[in-house]
Amino acid sequence: MTDLNQEGVRELLSAPNHAVISTINRDGSVHSTVVWIDHVDGVLAVNSATGRRWPANLDRDPRLTVIVTDQQNPYRFAEIRGTAEGTLEGALEHIHALARKYTGAEFTGLTPGAQRKKFVITPERVRYVNQ
Fold first, then answer.
1. Ranges of each domain in the chain
2. What sign does the dihedral 53-96-85-21 (CA atoms) show?
């Protein structure tokens, strides 16, 4: 079975490839959005401002699917299904680390009073495709 440590999956997660995260809305429909993602020291994580739909969905129902595609070849991707647990602890530092990975600079999108939340993902199934 594929896991996060498979070479192709590690490469996708370590590069600044965007991910699509899909969560479950209150009415049972699926909500998908593009996110930044990282895999550091065995921990897979995403980050958002509180009050947005997908973090609220995960707070209510922790199940999610994440697809990370290679920006140079969208037919090379990893699909990760699992659950996520949110925490405010370290979330601000995490968004700055993600911003450095994706933009090369600190995160500039902080608004006064906004609170960041870091979601650590526990994979239950990982699939890697390289076509």
1. 7-130
2. positive
Name residue 124's beta-bridge partners. none
User: What residue type is 126 in one-letter code?
Assistant: V
What CATH class does 7-130 carry? mainly beta
pTM of the model: 0.94
Q: CA 75, CA 57: separation in Å to the nearest integer? A: 28
pLDDT in tens, 11-59: 999 999 999 999 999 999 999 999 999 999 889 999 999 999 999 999 9
Amino acid at the residue 85: E
Burial of 109 (0-12, 13-18, 19+ CB in 10 A): exposed
Give me 81's structure tokens.
């299904």
Phi-psi region of 11 (alpha: psi -120 to 50; beta: other; left: phi over 0): alpha
DSSP state of 52: S
Helix (H) or strand (E) holding 18: none
Q: Which two tokens stand for residue 41?
A: 């020291």
